[in-house]
Amino acid sequence: MSETTPTTPAPADAVPRVAILGAGGKMGRHAVPAVREAAGLELVAELGSRDPLQAVLDAGATHLLDLTVPDASPDNVAFAVEHGLHAVVGTSGWGAERRRALEAQLAEHPGVGVLIAPNFSVGSVLASAFAAKAARWFESVEVVELHHPAKLDAPSGTAVRTAEMIGDARAAAGVDPSPDATERDPDGARGAVVNGVHVHAVRLRGLEAHQEVLMGGPGEQLTVRHDAFDRGAYMPGVVLGLRTVASRPGLTYGLDGVLELD
Ligand SMILES: NC(=O)C1=CN([C@@H]2O[C@H](COP(=O)(O)OP(=O)(O)OC[C@H]3O[C@@H](n4cnc5c(N)ncnc54)[C@H](OP(=O)(O)O)[C@@H]3O)[C@@H](O)[C@H]2O)C=CC1
Ligand SMILES: O=C(O)C1=N[C@H](C(=O)O)C[C@H](O)C1
Asked: Residue 31: enclosing H or E segment and its boundaries?
């Protein structure tokens, strides 16, 4: 076993030495060549569910890329933070409670950066930002996310993030909740309600990852739609996240912060 366990986080100007967790998964199989070929990044470990987390330290990694499953991701990230590794997280399922626990841990490890990116696609991040900007001007807003049937979670992390942004923007603007005359919904046909926004999840063979934000006012509608057809769409965001996370200590939630869209 190696003695290379870093306890001091790697500085922002050091070349990130990246361990990928979930390297054999659908995202991981794209991320391995993307990281390997990216200038200024070094791929030091490709790990799956059978590998112990210690293998990350044995490889001398300074950065963890987590592309696993919602049940495993919090422990993986906690392990990284505990050992002074920066982490970029694409795995979904990072609700407010998990993020609060992570922030508490990060407060004990100053200098460690974690980026949780519900979506690495620049187009998707822009679509959510546009929708959040527009939503205050419409009476009604609903989110529909559509994914492949192997997806483990619902609603998608992107839809949750989008609804959070929309609900926050509408609240800040003092907009009334979307009118909704449904008093009884015994079968849940109106979907989940996230931050006051109805979110609907479709799982369908043939789909990859798609989202529509439907906004309606008297006599008009605006739809903001994004489609990811291939997991290659996420790789520029993955690489950008790995290159910048060390310069952002603490928790960054959403690639929009990294793209400086505000
Ligand atoms: N942020 C974004 O832009 C995107 C996020 N995602 C999210 O990323 C996650 C992964 O998606 P996807 O690649 O499609 O999923 P897959 O099911 O294809 O892959 C998941 C991988 O995680 C591995 N794994 C499971 N548990 C562990 C563990 N404890 N330690 C290490 N590896 C583990 C599995 O390894 P093994 O095969 O060895 O069991 C598997 O290879 C999902 O949460 C998905 O929603 C997806 C697309 C874009
Ligand atoms: O599982 C997926 O496929 C995706 N997961 C992420 C999510 O939950 O939002 C990102 C994208 O939608 C693809």
From this structure: helix 26-37
Domains and CATH numbers, the chain: 17-116+232-258 (3.40.50.720), 122-179+189-229 (3.30.360.10)
Cα–Cα dist 85/11, whole Å: 11
Q: What global pTM score does this model have?
A: 0.95
Looking up tokens 């933070």, which residue turns up?
81
Using one digit for the tens of pLDDT, what is the confidence trace for 95-107?
999 999 999 999 9
| Amino acid symbol at 97 | E
Is 93 assigned to a binding site? no
Backbone angles phi, psi at 56, to 5 degrees: -65, -45
Q: What's the order of all strands across the beta sheet hosting 42-47?
A: 42-47, 17-21, 63-66, 86-89, 113-116, 250-253
Q: What pLDDT is attached to residue 5?
A: 53
Annotated ligand binding at 158? The verdict is: yes
* Residue 157 CA, closest ligand 1 atom number: 45
pLDDT digits (tens, 9 = 90+) for 21-71: 999 999 999 999 999 999 999 999 999 999 999 999 999 999 999 999 999
> What is the chain's mean pLDDT, rounded?
95
Q: Tell me, what's the ipTM?
A: 0.98
Q: Out of 147, 200, 210, 226, which one is annotated catalytic?
A: 147
83 carries an active-site annotation: no
Q: How far apart are the first and last CA of the chain?
A: 45
Is 118 annotated as a binding-site member? Answer: yes
How far is ligand 2, taken at its centre, from the CA of residue 154, in Å?
10
Long-range CB contacts (within 8 A, 24+) of 169-173: 169/132, 169/133, 169/135, 169/136, 170/135, 170/136, 170/141, 170/196, 171/196, 173/136
- Is 151 marked active-site? yes
